[in-house]
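Support reply, case 0932

Customer input (verbatim):
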Amino acid sequence: MAGRIKKAGPGLKALQAVRAYIGKYPFMREFFDPGQELDVESFGERFRVRFYRFQPELVYYMDNKIRFGFREAIQL
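Our regenerated output:
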């Protein structure tokens, strides 16, 4: 896989990233006050992090059912 890394600005995609992260690591809620809105800004301020997203440009499709080691490049 090959592509570009871009900073995720405020918006729906960044909010989805925060929620997915909290969903995967539920103990992270303990670092916030009960009822506090979990958004990109509060998450970034609390942990001094920024969210980035990977935008793929080239993906390899691999399928050993076709033949062992088969792979095909797919340009996006």
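We compared this against your earlier run and they match. Two observations from our side: Helices lie at 12-24, 40-47. DSSP finds two helices and three strands in the chain. Please reopen the case if you see a mismatch on your end.
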